[in-house]
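Sample 1 of the test manifest.
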Amino acid sequence: MSATATRPSPTAGLYETDFWSFVDNGEVRMQRSRSTGKLRYPPSPVCPDTLDPEFDWVPIEGSARLLAWTVFRRTYFPTIPAPYTVVVVQISEGPIMVGHLDGDQSATLRHDLAMELAFDTVETETGPRQLSTWLPTSRPTQSPTHATRNTHD
Amino acid sequence: MPDEKRLDLLRGATAVVGIGETSYGRDHAAVRSGNALTDAYGYAATALAHALADSGLSKFDIDGLIAGPTLATERLGEVLGIETRWADQADAVNAVVKAAMAIQAGLAECIALVYGNDQRAVGTRYGGPGAYGAQKHLAYSYFAPWGLTSQGALYALMANAYMAQTGLTESELGEFVVAQRRYAQLNPNAVMRRDLTLPDYIAGETICDPLRIFDYCLVNDGGVALIITTADRATTLATEPVLIQGIGRSDMNRGATTLGPRLIDFYRPAHRQAAEQVYNMAEVAQSDIDSVQVYDSFSIHVPVALDGFGFCPPGEPGALARQGLGPGRRLAVNTSGGHLSESYMQGWNHQIEAVKQVRGHAGERQVPNTRHVQYISDVAGKTMSIIYGRRN
C-alpha cells in the first residue's frame, strides 16, 4: 500500500534540502557537530550545545531501539488510509526518528525492540521519493514492494 | 534562575476580581445543529460582559487587554471598544502571569484577559493538513510524510511509553476520565453530562492506540474572560478577591520536535522545577492544595502531571486511580469536568473553575473549605503552574 499512498511532502528548509537529497540516494545522514561530535536531528543551522555552525553530514549506522508506537485507526491524510502504525525509535547515535508501517503492527512490537533502518518508495505531491522507516530487526520484510533495505558497507 | 526575593514581592500582589464564560452546553447543542451563534470575538465579548458584571467594574475601568491565542489583540480591542495602556496575546496560563507582571510593574492597573473560540463552527482541524498549532510546535507538522499528525497521536505515543514504564493500565486511565465526567454532571454549564461508566470508556472507539474517543478533549465553541487587578484595588470590590499566590515555570525545548521530552522524560524535569518554584513562591505545601486543575487536552496529561508534581509516589499514577477519583474523593482533579467533559477552552475554563473553587462558588462540585487551588499545564513540555488562594 505504501508504494501507492501519496504522502505529504517533507518540511522545506535550507538544511532540509541536503538531508532529503541523501535520503533520495538511500541514505540517512545527519549533521555531526565539529565541536562536540554529536549528531543532531531534525536538521538545524547550529550545534545546540556550542552554537557552532560547522558540521559534517555523516551516515547513521542504521540501528535503533523502539521507544513508542501508536496505531492510527482514523484517517487524517486522505491518501494515507488507516489503519497504520507509527513507530518512534532512538537511533544508536542518540537522535530520535519516526517510521511508518502499513496496517496494525502492534503485535510485533515491544519497548526497546531492536529496529533497523529501511526505505520505502512513496508517492508524494512532488513525485516518487524515498522515505526512511524503521523495522524490527531480523523480521522478514512485509512484502517485496514494501521496503527497500538499506545496505551499509 | 528565578529570583525568590523578587517573586516574594509578587506573591498575592494581584487578584482575579471578575470571571465570565459562555453557556458551553447550550451553545454546543446549537452549533451541532448547524447554527453558528456568533464568532470567536462574539463569544469573547459575551464572556467579558459577564466578567465585568461579576466584578462590578465598568469597561472604562479596563486599561489593559490580553487576548487569547485565537484572537488578534488589535481586533479584539476594536470589537470591545477598549483603548489600552498595555496589551498582549497569550495562552491561558501565560495570560494570567503576564497580567500579574504588567500590573506589578505598574504598566496597567486593571487588565481584562479575554478568549473566544469558534473552532467547531469553523471546523478547525487539529490533525492532517494545516493542523492547528504547527507554527508553534514543529512536531505537529514535521512528521506528516510518515502519517504522524495530530496532537492526539503525539499524546498516544506518550501514553504508550508512559503506561509501559509505570504500569498504568487502560482501566486506571479510564478512571480519570469517568471521574471528570462525574464532576461535569454536577456542573450545569458543562457540555458532556451523560453518564459515562468505565465499560463505556473501554468500549469507546480507539483513535490512536491506546487513546480512545473519551481520552480526547471536546471541540466546542465559547468564550472566557477574567479581570485581574491589584490586591489592594480588589479589596474595594464586592467579590472576594482570588489572589495569585504562586507561579512556576520550566520549559523543555531540547529534542522537543523529536519527542524526547515526551517519550523519555515524561516532562518530569520540568514538573520538578515548576513544582518547587510554585510551592515556594506561594508559601504553600502540596498538602494545602484543595483541588488541582490540570490542562487535559488528552486524559493522559492528568496522571503524567500529577505524577511529575508529586501527588503520587514517583511513577505510581495508578495509585491515584485505585484510591478513587471524582466528587467526594481525596484528590479533587478537574472539578468542572475539564477539557474532557466541561468545555475545551484551551486552559481558560480551568482558570475560571479555580477561581470559583477558591470563592466557594462551585455549587455541588465545591470542594469543602477550599483555600488554595493549583493549576498545572505541561503542553509540549512547557510546564507552568499557578496557585490561587484566598486572602488570609
